[in-house]
Amino acid sequence: MFKKVLYATDLSESSLAIVDMLPDFKCLGIEEVVVLRVINLTRIMGISGFDVNAYIKALEEESLPKLREICEKINGMGYSAKLIPPPAGDPVGEIVRVAKEEGVDMIVMGSRGRSTVKAILLGSTAEGVVRKADIPVMVCKNKVSPFSRILYAYDFTESSEKVKGYVKFVAKSCASKVVVAHILEKGEIVEEDRLDRIEQEFGEEGIEVKIVIGEGSPAKEIVRVAEVENANSIFVGKGKKGILGSTSDYVIRYSKVPVFVA
Ligand code: AMP
């Protein structure tokens, strides 16, 4: 399911920290890690008299030794690293394009990059990639080992059903414990049969599962339950028709642990 992944890095401290998390991804059966840095031209667009070619060349020269070092580290973890010569352009578009061209199964990236503005919870590249990619994206935060205890946000919708396959795969591959969080909004009542069914479904596959029912705003409750339950990652569906919904958007921003969005 996750043979080949793309690791996107702007070489910022926070995105480099993700490399140290990669050994925790081993249980997913990943074989190849495509390493990509995009030379961001959106920052310099419109500056008159700017020598774009010299800028690209300087950043290429700056990137390559660092990217080679990252690849060596990744190879040392038992993966096969593939260095992509840094393309120049818009990071969101380039990350999505390379992911497609390389046929990767997932994009792994940070929630923030170079910006030092603390108020920014989710950078524009991360947000753009989550919106545009049609494959799962793991938005990493801090250096949390993501798969020992995962929270699966389940609301019976098609998009959360779709994530179930990934949750099961990860739980079986990484022996994760799963907390299924189902949040009731105002006026909703518990659909016990459906929750019993999912508990049984996971149980039959040998996955240890705990059902937690919350009440209130789904987005806030998912983040709260994840904290209370000490989840190490949150798995959410993207939203209707693959368009990022407000719940997932909030969860990606406010979660303190990595978020897997599909
Ligand atoms: P941002 O959204 O720009 O704050 O950055 C969030 C994450 O997106 C970073 O941690 C990187 O994983 C990725 N990223 C940002 N800019 C680039 C870039 N130029 N090339 C590759 N990945 C990037």
- In N-to-C order, the SSE pattern is EHEEHEEHEHEEHEHEHEHE
CA gyration radius, whole angstroms: 19 Å
Q: Structural class of the helices, strands and pairings?
A: alpha/beta
Spatial arrangement of strands, main beta sheet:
4-2-1-6-7-12-11-8-9-10
Cofactors and ligands present?
adenosine monophosphate
Query: What is CATH's topology name of the largest domain?
Result: Rossmann fold
Estimate the mean pLDDT confidence.
Answer: 95
Q: What's the CATH H-level homologous superfamily of the largest domain? A: HUPs
How many separate structural domains?
A: 2
Shape: globular
Tell me, what is the CATH class of the largest domain? Answer: Alpha Beta
Our count of helices gives 8
| Terminal residue distance | 13 Å
Q: How many strand elements?
A: 12
- Low-confidence region ranges: none
SS strand fraction: 15-25%
Q: Approximately how much helix is present in the residues?
A: 25-40%
Instruction: Give me the CATH architecture of the largest domain, please.
Output: 3-Layer(aba) Sandwich
Largest sheet: 10 strands, mixed
SSE blueprint:
Blueprint: E1 4-8, H1 13-16, E2 32-36, E3 39-40, H2 52-76, E4 80-83, E5 88-89, H3 91-102, E6 106-110, H4 124-132, E7 137-140, E8 149-153, H5 158-174, E9 177-184, H6 192-204, E10 209-215, H7 218-228, E11 233-236, H8 246-254, E12 259-261
Parallel strand pairs: 1-2, 1-6, 2-4, 3-5, 6-7, 8-9, 8-11, 9-10, 11-12
Antiparallel strand pairs: 7-12
Adenosine monophosphate (AMP) binds at residues 8-10, 14-15, 36-38, 40, 91, 95, 109-110, 112-113, 115, 123-126.
